[in-house]
Fold this protein.
Amino acid sequence: MSIAGPGYRVARNADLATRNTFGVSARTPLLVEVDDAAALPQLFADGVVDIADPALLVLGGGSNVLFAGDAPGPVLSFTAQNVESGEGDGDTVVVRAGAGVPWHAFVMHTLSLGLCGLENLALIPGTVGAAPIQNIGAYGVEVREHVHAVEAFDRRENRMRRLAPAQCAFAYRDSVFKHDPARFMVTAVEFALSRRPRLRLDYAGIGGELATMGISDPRASDVAEAVIRIRRRKLPDPARVGNAGSFFKNPIVAAAQAEALLSAHPALPVFPVAAFPADAAAHGQAGGTLRKLSAAWLIDACGWKGQRDGDAGVSPDHALVLVNHGAASGARLLGLARRIAASVHERFGVALEPEPRIVGAGW
Ligand SMILES: Cc1cc2nc3c(=O)[nH]c(=O)nc-3n(C[C@H](O)[C@H](O)[C@H](O)COP(=O)(O)OP(=O)(O)OC[C@H]3O[C@@H](n4cnc5c(N)ncnc54)[C@H](O)[C@@H]3O)c2cc1C
């Protein structure tokens, strides 16, 4: 059964299987599709959804969630597809996009306007509204570098807010939104983009790919094309095999622990961590003393690559990517993830944290 109010539509007992890229079965008692974020105060005032319900889940493209069971509460999704470009100030142009805009289409749109900044983040699945939640990043760039402001409905204060980047507490795959999911619903994001290219070509094969493409003086759109080609080769397409990209974050540890691990395992990839205050605070360390370890290497070293438990598996190509080979349940995928983390902890003393939000169970 469906009902509708001004700016939103509601369906009861809705199926979420096609709304998560793992493709696992899950249902929600109430699916609310919000076409106009201005309808939110009325939606809460009408009691369609309880503003304080801790089980209320905002869902974008479902590419960073694992439904370990049914959603315990209502699911709300933003559909607005509006994109507006501002006048700009010299070199910089502010572009605002509604939460429901598909991320990759948005990146390509900004490039078609001659604006640079998001090219390394091409082909990441999902929506604009979810981009700030885990501060999406790829190929040496994080979205926080280009966020001008985040517009969000604050459920605690029952009002719209416009948060400056400093208020978002961005860190590696982290933000205030991820820490407090029952508070903020992102309704739109403003990005500060540049008319003048400042390309980042030094990361993970971009230069080599451009050379293969025969391009020596690349434009931002060429960098996006190189990233797209690399990603298409390397990452499983969720349309063919269910997955949520990297299932685990690269663990951040104290430098002393990284050095001890490195002397025992010289092949372990260890990276310096940029001294962003929120990263340092999250780990109770001064920024300079932290190191990032390769979660993929740790998992591979424990022999998990290509392993299966029924239809739940670890990609044979990427130790970091859990896959649904067909009819795996979310609970089975979660069980596999927990066993992987336990074995890495037992062998290396390193705690792995999942990157996707786990719904319907704890970690
Ligand atoms: C093949 C593949 C490759 C990927 N590669 C990368 C990568 O390179 N880098 C990277 O960072 N991520 C990557 N991801 C993960 C994922 O694409 C991103 O995290 C993306 O931003 C999730 O967007 P979504 O709309 O699907 O969010 P969802 O999965 O729907 O939601 C993710 C989280 O954000 C919350 N959320 C979503 N929208 C809102 C909103 N409007 N307001 C408040 N909370 C919200 C949800 O409640 C949930 O906690 C990859 C995933 C896949 C499947």
Q: What stands out?
A: The pocket of flavin-adenine dinucleotide is lined by residues 21, 57-65, 78, 99, 124-127, 129-131, 133-134, 136-138, 177, 181, 184-186, 235, 238, 243-245, 357 (CB under 6 Å). The first strand starts at residue 2 and ends at 5. Residues 228 and 362 are 34 Å apart (CA to CA). The mean pLDDT is 93.
